[in-house]
User: What shape does this take?
Amino acid sequence: MIKKLFLPALLWAVSLLPAFAQADQPKDEKAELTRKQNADKLEQLMGITFLKDEQQKRLQLEKYLEENPNGPHLVTAYMALFWPVLKTDPARALEVANRFLERVPPDDKRMKITAYRFKYEALKALKKEADVAALSRNVLETETEPDLLAQMAYYDKENALHLYEKAVTEKRKSGGDRYSNPTLSDLLSGYARLLVREEGGLAKSIDLMREAIQVDEGTIRELEKADGVNKSQIKPLQVRVSENSLSLAQMYVKSADGKKALEAIDKAEAAGSIALERRSAFLGVRAETYSVMGDREKAFETYLRSFAVRMDPATWRKIQTISRETGRRDQDVMAAVVRLSRTGGQPFSPFELKDLQGETKTFNDFKQKVTLVNFFFPT
Assistant: This one.
């Protein structure tokens, strides 16, 4: 009985295969046609952007956008049109930005952010601060995308805190996904760095920055437990913990809490290897902490170490202030800086490379010689 039913059913299914193939074929052809049209449009657009005559380029871009109001590569076309026009005719650039904003699909986050940026840039160029504030209020009322809200805070100082606050709130509503950009940590730390400048905002800034650090530390622990996770995924988080901990230390210095500032600096240094260009900043914050704690000798020594890494004029002025208070001579101070710079330097690791003539050179070939090292990145 089963065989009698199965065989006709199988034959019926096989008979439908050509029909399925025919049904799929138009879809494939349509997709291929769309891909080809998009490629042709991109080639057309690239040809326009390479025109040397700026007036002709602008006219051609305007024509392209009129003929393809909802076509492919809109962002590329509007960027090519907007930035040159902004330099010469901000009012016209504002018209371009408004038109772009009207055509943005509601669900296209990246395109919407770009369109809003254009409008802010045009309004700023026209010095229409009232309109900038009005645009921000509109964004606050109508938009919920955390990335958009946070990016728009860059353009409007008056409403920046409100924009960041809503960005954090919306991110929390979505569950505070730790892996999608901007992360909750990004938003919390950005909000904290803005808020700390405001009168009465220090305590809340400290809380926000502490939470940002805790979020990243939690993510690091998750990744360390997961299988097949590359260390390169963890490294950026460690760097962010380090930088945010340094910012937290500066906030504690501002609140005159030297003990917590030192704890934050220790965490910053332990979180990841500190790049040479940042070592001076870390030492500088440590020196400020010692000053807040009333330990002038440690502060002086640490400022010296900071200055030996990077000869910052502001750091030198702090060194001179302590020198005068403690009766030190400038020449003695500079001698100490020279000594620290020599002992604190890191030697080159041994290497073996070929020069432009194809000859092999080693580290020892350059010992005791004045050598210019030129770092470059060929592309």
Summary: The first helix runs from residue 2 to 49.
